[in-house]
Amino acid sequence: SIQVATDKVAGKLSSTLSWVKNTVSHTVSQMASQVASPSASLHTTSPSTTLSTPALSPSSPTQLSPDDLELLAKLEEQNRLLETDSKSLRSVNGSRRNSGSSLVSSSSASSNLSHLEEDSWILWGRIVNEWEDVRKKKEKQVKELVRKGIPHHFRAIVWQLLCSAQSMPIKDQYSELLKMTSPCEKLIRRDIARTYPEHDFFKEKDSLGQEVLFNVMKAYSLVDREVGYCQGSAFIVGLLLMQMPEEEAFCVFVKLMQDYRLRELFKPSMAELGLCMYQFECMIQEHLPELYVHFQSQSFHTSMYASSWFLTIFLTTFPLPIATRIFDIFMSEGLEIVFRVGLALLQMNQAELLQLDMEGMLQHFQKVIPHQFDSGPDKLIQASYQVKYNAKKMKKLEKEYTTIKTKEMEEQVEIKRLRTENRLLKQRIETLEKESASLADRLIQHKCSSRYSEDFVLQLEKELVQARLSEAESHCALKEMQDKVLEMEKRNSSLPDEENVARLQEELIAVKLREAESLMGLKDLRQQVKDLEEHWQRHLARTTGRWKDPPRKNAVNELQDELMTVRLREAETQAELKETKQRMMEMETQNQINSNHLRRAEQEITNLQEKVQYLSAQNKGLLAQLNEAKRRQAEIECKSKEEVMAVRLREADRIAAVAELQQHIAELEIQ
Question: Torsion-angle region of residue 550: left (phi > 0), alpha (psi -120 to 50) or beta?
Answer without folding.
Answer: beta
